[in-house]
Specification:
Keywords: Membrane, Transmembrane, Transmembrane helix. InterPro entries: DUF1365. Pfam families: DUF1365. By secondary structure, this protein is α+β, with helices and mostly antiparallel strands. It has one domain. Helix content is 30%, strand content 35%. It is built from five helices and ten strands; from the N terminus they run ααββαββββββββαα. It has a ten-stranded antiparallel beta sheet, with helices on one face. A hairpin with a 5-residue loop joins β8 and β9. The longest helix is centred in the N-terminal third of the chain and has 38 residues. It starts with a helix and ends with a helix. 22% of the residues are buried. About 3% of the residues have low confidence.
Length: 254
């Protein structure tokens, strides 16, 4: 029954993606006209509170099989206080400041939805503290969403390095016994995020990282094209390598 629902979901997403992709050029043209009108009364810095990043996600596990993979990914870093439209299903800047006890800007690193589909294994809020004329990254909030269940947990961590008890399943054949070691750099021209799982029996048996570089800013009208099918590609990579792990697991028990 679960396979049936999964197949129905894939068909529905595929049809929606096809339809919205066909009308994407018209939506982009409309947004370009709206951006041109807005630019007449605001500076470029005010119109574009979004930075675009492109980089590589890398995964490696050492149990029950040594397996690694990487894929290219595109992210948006959104200034939530200056963004004209808050991203759906995410914290507001005031909520993030209250959770982290900060008083400065809140930046959200995330993969925006594309043509009706969203796939975001990890989103990170960068929460800054302002003291006089000095701004420093004080805390981060991680939003971890597992695939395909769509369960999500959020937790605050020290960006320099922090240990967090594992809160949900995120990968096959990994139990809930373990601690996440997570750290994130202050995003600038480059950004990095790394997560490793420490297990009392298997040691440091899983590592994931994101390394990305900021690209030249582009008009809002280009963002839909820049992220076209990006969530779909992430989902394909996840399902492909999950299938590999299941096949290995079955073969090892034959």
């Amino acid at each position: 029954m679960e396979i049936f629902y999964l197949l129905c979901s894939i068909v529905s997403i595929s049809l929606t993606t096809l339809l919205l992709s066909l009308i994407l050029p018209f939506n982009a043209l409309l947004r370009r006209r709206e951006s041109s009108r807005a630019a007449s009364s605001f500076t470029q810095d005010e119109v574009e509170p979004v930075s675009l990043y492109e980089g590589t996600v890398w995964h490696q596990r050492r149990h029950p099989v040594n397996h690694s993979f990487q894929y290219r990914v595109r992210y948006a870093l959104i200034d939530l206080d200056r963004a004209p439209h808050a991203p759906n299903d995410h914290l507001s800047p005031d909520e993030a400041r209250q959770i982290t006890d900060t008083n400065g800007p809140i930046l959200l690193l995330t993969i925006p939805p594309s043509v009706g589909y969203e796939q975001n294994p990890l989103s990170v809020y960068y929460c800054y503290a302002v003291e006089g004329s000095t701004k420093r990254l004080k805390k981060c909030i991680a939003e971890v969403t597992n695939t395909p269940w769509g369960e999500r947990v959020s937790f605050v961590f020290n960006p320099h390095s922090d240990l967090v008890a594992k809160a949900l399943h995120v990968s096959p054949f990994m139990d809930m016994i373990g601690i996440w070691n997570i750290k994130a750099s202050d995003p600038g021209e480059n950004l990095t995020i790394s997560i490793s799982v420490h297990h009392p029996e298997h040691g440091n048996y899983f590592t994931a990282s994101l390394k990305a570089k900021r690209l030249c800013s582009s008009p809002v009208s280009h963002h839909a094209i820049f992220f076209w099918l990006m969530p779909h590609k992430v989902a394909v990579w996840i399902y492909w390598h999950v299938s590999f792990l299941f096949i290995f697991h079955l073969n090892s028990h034959v």
